[in-house]
Amino acid sequence: MKKRLHNPNRAKTNRNYTVEEIADLYDVHKITVRAWIKAGLPIINEKRPMLILGGDLAAFHQAKRTKNKQKCKPGEMYCVKCRAPKKPDGEAEYQQKTATLGNLVGICPDCYTIMNRRVSLAKLGQVRGKMDITMPQALRHIKREWRSYRKH
After folding, report:
1. What is the pLDDT of residues 107-121, one digit of tens each?
2. Does 1.10.10 match the CATH number of domain 8-67?
3. What is the pLDDT of residue 67?
4. Which residues partner with 18 through β-bridges?
5. How far is CA 45 from the centre of its chain?
6. 110 and 71 Cβ atoms separated by less than 8 Å
7. Residue 91: φ, ψ to 5°
8. Where are the domains of the chain?
9. I need a labelling partner for 101 at 20 to 30 A (CA). Which of 1, 11, 54, 65 fits?
């Protein structure tokens, strides 16, 4: 079963929650909430019903989100399958999406899946590192004169 990241903004910081309310809020089982408590989610006191501060709940989920986050260094792209930043096998291709933004597309050297990295055209030099990047040439448009269509 795949782990799910829970949105820390769902918990109101000025409110106290019971285990059942947290289970309803995040659409998980009560046992999952109790596992979070064992994993370090602070409770107000040991009395029943267990109460958790909303601010502590939000901070717990925010910490879980940032714990495994890995930033790509210059010359690296993130492989979703390997779950790690890697240097692409061969060269990466820049695919322009808007006038200022595009995607770098490369192939993972270990699992050979496609890796993507969103990058601004202005920051392409910073992201490049030692990575070889190909920029596709713009397609030439064929211009036809209106006169060539008219019959003489």
Report:
1. 999 999 999 889 988
2. yes
3. 77
4. 51
5. 36
6. no
7. -110, 160
8. 8-67, 77-134
9. 65
